[in-house]
Specification:
676 residues, 0% strand, Leucine-rich Repeat Variant, mainly alpha
Length: 676
């Protein structure tokens, strides 16, 4: 169905397990009990005692991490009741109120965030942030040091709440622009020498709000560019500084249209240097080093406090986990969430663990930025394949094909950007990150419960690298990757990833990333007549696993890979047996898959494989291709008429209708072959 589009990274959803609206409705009746925790805790918010209000907010912050508890709070107008406490006279209450709303936004998901914005939570939040900024200098004064609740601590919770809202709500971004909150983030960023945690939170928020925000770009002044450039030029070597520089680089890229041409050139070079440094760090070596550093520190601290030796820490954790299991709670329940933005998940005294997490976050963000640099701005992640070049058809009436034909035009990197990426060895570094994470690092993080939170992050870095590689392959001159031999090395690498572990074939995120990269690479190799590297057995095993995946994109990629490989083999001699395997697989999927998009891709692959060549003609006869397609055609047309307009987008329908026409033409072509 044409070339694949490049996948553009959006900022990662902070709550992939967020609460859908349906869940709220389903549990409203269950939440009407006045004795529920929500009713009791919300009532305590009205207490004249600051300690009681603080306790209630802290409790809400913990309870809402269980998504099934959120409807009870929403039903009782929790946002309007907690919101005013952002400006409570007690600093402790301000901080815990911001934390409660932060967790509600993170665990509730996009619809809850939209609801929070509609209930005007941004008005007290904006006021709180401005008050915090005026108190930063006081927080650093000798008289304020050591106090439990400082302006910076409160600001950190508030900035994270702002980030969550802006990440999920375009309305929140609009309010952010109109309220002039960019200055607030600037102040928070400038606190990095005193409070790195606050600066990183502000950098994340800035990276989010600057994405595709032309209104904000017009309001950015030299001071903002100066702060970001100073961060990029900092020489600090900690992992948290690496993350801060990476986020600053991403924001500069988002804001680059506000710079002059000369400044843009300098910025791109500085940006590539930052991203290259981030990717050059070897997490496989650094994570064990950080773990050993933590063990030494804990041993030293335990010696000074006469506590149990650090060597017993793992035993204590295992005992705690056993107790949690006996109490009916999942081990490490809070840390096991995929959401990384729940307040207080990572204690500040876990310095080395915070560094490890910052390293992986920096590398993930670097890969997302590079992937977007090699990606067209137009298509969104959920848009489908490139528009077919077939003739106009009934479902494309009104010029839909013509108006959308530019949506999937390939991006040609500027010569300057192309050179910058290559000079910094970016493609090679991306390929390195696409390898499986270090076995030693994986074993260590699996063994120690508090470090298990890094496992998903390590695998996520690999998946981001694979998708980034897909974009690079589609955008960078292949000669720069080593020509034919270089592409074959990459192909062998991707194939080895697929077949190195049975578990990898069960990981949907990994499968989507690796199939996209492999599809892109094989297409490039086919156009350059470079021999493929997968054996028939590997090819069929891979596609069997991929086509059984629930993700439509993975199934589509697998079918495209079959089509690309089969099309190349049809031009070679003695390949009829392999073509029969491919043809039978494609026919089976076209006839049995419930999704029309997948059926369409299978048909399109069949057209490519059996379009020409003696070997293809021989294989087609052996599998009764013509009679099978003739029997299939009426049902496909009927299913397209019945289900098409209700289940599929206009673009998908247009492509499917083109396939319907091509199916008719292909059957005529096979009939003509048979008459010869």
């Amino acid at each position: 169905m044409g070339k694949t589009k490049n996948n553009k990274f959006k900022r990662p959803s902070f709550s992939p397990d967020g609460l859908p609206a349906a869940a709220v409705k389903q549990t409203v009746e269950e939440s009407e009990d006045e004795d529920s925790p929500a009713a009791e805790l919300l009532q305590k918010l009205q207490s004249p005692s600051a300690d009681v209000r603080d306790y209630a907010c802290a409790s809400i912050s913990r309870v809402v991490q269980q998504s099934q508890m959120i409807p009870g709070f929403l039903q009782r107008d929790a946002v309007r009741k907690i919101g005013p406490l952002l400006l409570d006279r007690s600093l402790a209450v301000r901080e815990t109120a911001a934390g409660a709303l932060r967790n509600l936004s993170a665990c509730g998901g996009p619809e809850v965030c939209e609801d929070m914005v509609r209930q005007d939570v941004l008005t007290p939040l904006s006021a709180l942030l401005r008050e915090c900024c005026t108190g930063f200098d006081m927080s650093s004064s000798p008289t304020m040091k050591g106090q439990k609740h400082t302006a910076e601590d409160i600001a950190n919770e508030a900035v994270n709440l702002l980030w969550n809202l802006c990440e999920s709500s375009s309305t929140a971004v609009s309010v952010f622009n109109k309220a002039g909150l960019l200055d607030v983030l600037l102040h928070c960023l400038q606190r990095h020498p005193q409070n790195m945690e606050l600066a990183v939170s502000a950098a994340y928020c800035l990276h989010t709000v600057t994405e595709e925000n032309e209104e904000l770009v017009r309001s950015v002044n030299a001071a903002m560019f100066g702060v970001l450039e100073n961060i990029l030029s900092s020489a600090h070597t900690s992992m948290e500084y690496t993350l801060l520089r990476t986020l600053a680089a991403g924001s500069l890229l988002n804001l680059k249209s506000g710079l002059s041409s000369a400044q843009q050139s300098q910025t791109l070079t500085a940006l590539a240097t930052t991203l290259s440094h981030s990717l050059s760090l070897d997490a496989g070596e650094l994570i064990p080093e950080l773990w050993r550093a933590e063990a030494v520190r804990l041993a030293t601290e335990s010696d000074h406090s006469d506590a149990r030796p650090a060597g017993h820490e793992a035993e204590e954790m295992e005992e705690d986990m056993k107790d949690e299991k006996m109490n009916g709670r999942k081990p490490n329940d809070r840390m096991s969430k995929t959401n990384d933005d729940v307040s207080d998940l990572l204690p500040r005294d876990r310095l080395e663990l915070r560094e490890a997490k910052a390293l992986l976050s920096a590398q993930q963000t670097s890969l997302e930025i590079i992937g977007n640099m090699c990606c067209s701005d137009e298509p969104s992640d959920d848009e489908w394949e490139e528009m077919s070049s077939s003739d106009e058809s009934e479902m494309c009436a009104g010029g839909m094909s013509d108006t959308n034909s530019s949506l999937f035009s390939p991006l040609c990197l500027s010569a300057e950007l192309h050179t910058i990426l290559l000079n910094h060895s970016i493609p090679q570094q991306v390929l390195k990150k696409a390898e499986f994470p270090s076995a030693a690092a994986l074993e260590l993080c699996s063994k120690y419960p508090t470090w298990k939170c890094l496992l998903k992050k390590m695998h996520r870095v690999q998946c981001r690298a694979l998708t980034c590689l897909h974009n690079i392959l589609s955008s960078v001159d292949t000669e720069s990757l080593g020509g034919a031999s270089g592409l074959q090395v990459v192909a062998q690498h991707l194939s080895s990833l697929v077949f190195s572990s049975a578990e990898s074939l069960k990981d949907e995120e990994f499968l989507e990333a690796v199939t996209s990269a492999l599809r892109s690479l094989l297409q490039i190799m086919a156009t350059k007549n470079i021999p493929q590297c997968m054996t028939p057995h590997q090819l069929m095993s891979f596609c069997e696993a991929a086509t059984s995946c629930e993700l439509v994109s993975v199934r589509v990629n697998a079918l495209a890979i079959l089509g690309i490989t089969g099309s190349s083999l049809s031009k070679e001699k003695n390949t009829a047996d392999t073509l029969q395997l491919i043809g039978n697989a494609l026919l089976n999927i076209a006839m049995k898959d419930s999704n029309l998009v997948v059926c369409g891709e299978a048909l399109d692959a069949l057209f490519d494989v059996f379009a020409d060549g003696d070997e293809a003609e021989k294989a087609g006869k052996n599998i009764n291709l013509l009679s099978s397609l003739k029997a299939f055609q009426p049902g496909f047309r009927a299913k397209l008429r019945k289900e098409g307009r209700g289940k599929y987008s206009p673009d998908q329908l247009c492509v499917l209708d083109n396939i319907r026409i091509n199916l008719k033409r292909f059957i005529s072509y096979l009939e003509n072959l048979q008459r010869k």
